[in-house]
Amino acid sequence: MSGNGYSYKSHGTNSQGNHYCARDYGSSASNSNSYHYSNSNGSYYYSNPNGSTYYNNGAGGSTYTAPSGQSYSSGNSGSSSGSGSQK
């Protein structure tokens, strides 16, 4: 399955109801293996093909990290960590 300049590598939902989707944007993208996941608690995370990331904690807070590494937070950020498991 493909479209919009990418192909799907993997996607699914685990037993906790957390969804993930990994895409391959090819060698011309800064981050060719981008992905996103969304959790049953309302939080979600995007790793974008341009090298930026976006994390929303599901409680009104979010953190955007530009390709340069500069981070911008807004709202009730709580934990601004964008790390998490895709499993």
Automatic annotation (TrEMBL):
Region annotation (Disordered) ranges: 1-33, 56-87
Q: Quote the biased-composition stretches of kind Low complexity, using this chain's numbering.
A: 68-87
Bias (Polar residues) occurs at: 1-18
Q: What is this protein called?
A: Uncharacterized protein
Q: What lineage, starting at the top, does this entry show?
A: Eukaryota, Fungi, Dikarya, Ascomycota, Pezizomycotina
